[in-house]
Specification:
Helices cover about 55% and strands about 10% of the residues. It is of the alpha+beta class.
């Protein structure tokens, strides 16, 4: 009975092992950094609040990633500036402010919904500020964070990471600061997640 159970488990795992073995550099992922990866395994999603695909991704895929992260793996996000012209930069600032004030879980869906559900036009920084305040963020806390060193530093890092990873479209996933998952090769978002999870441990092999 025990032997039969082990065989059944092996058969179930076999397709997963085979699938992982089929993930190839240059097809399913690209090495963007020949040096060492991040100190700890991590998956970073690059996104834009103005991107409708990112809006859908935030509702359907990000929860799956967060709920099934391999042990010891972190999930991070980085907002890109190249969509929305000047407001793309302001949305990156908004994301950094939300993280610094620990209100990302509230502000991120509020911004996505305002843009894609309510069709609200954001044309200046004050429009973003008003949304924060409408969602319970203290105006003085917002203003202090908006011009803070920490927010400016995070914005600079997100821009640098976007350029280093050669991100040209979003949503996009980068693993361990070293591997960019190639979305053109995937058949589903579930496969995208599988590839990302596989890459978190590739350097251990």
């Amino acid at each position: 009975m025990k032997k039969a159970l082990l065989m059944a488990v092996a058969l179930l795992l076999a397709p997963m092992v085979a699938m992982a073995a089929d993930y190839k550099e240059g097809v399913h992922y690209t090495v963007i950094n020949e040096g060492p990866g991040t100190a700890k395994p991590e998956i970073t999603e690059f996104f834009s609040f103005f991107c409708p695909h990112c809006f859908n991704f935030s509702k359907t895929v990000v929860p799956k990633i967060e709920a099934n992260l391999p042990e010891g793996v972190e999930f991070n996000q980085a907002h890109v500036e190249f969509i929305g012209r000047q407001m793309g930069i302001e949305m990156s600032r908004a994301f950094a402010i939300a993280e610094q004030l620990n209100v990302k879980d509230k502000i991120e869906p509020a911004l996505f919904s305002a843009i894609h559900d309510k069709r609200q036009q954001f044309t200046r920084a004050d429009d973003i500020r008003s949304l924060f305040i409408a969602n319970g963020v203290d105006a003085k806390a917002y203003d202090a964070a908006a011009s803070s060193f920490m927010v400016n530093a995070q914005m600079a890092k997100m821009k640098r990471d976007t350029e280093n990873a050669k991100i040209s479209g979003v949503p996009s996933l980068v693993v361990n600061g070293k591997y960019r998952v190639e979305t053109s090769s995937i058949k589903s978002y579930d496969e995208l997640i599988d590839i990302a999870f596989y890459l978190t441990s590739i350097d251990k092999k």
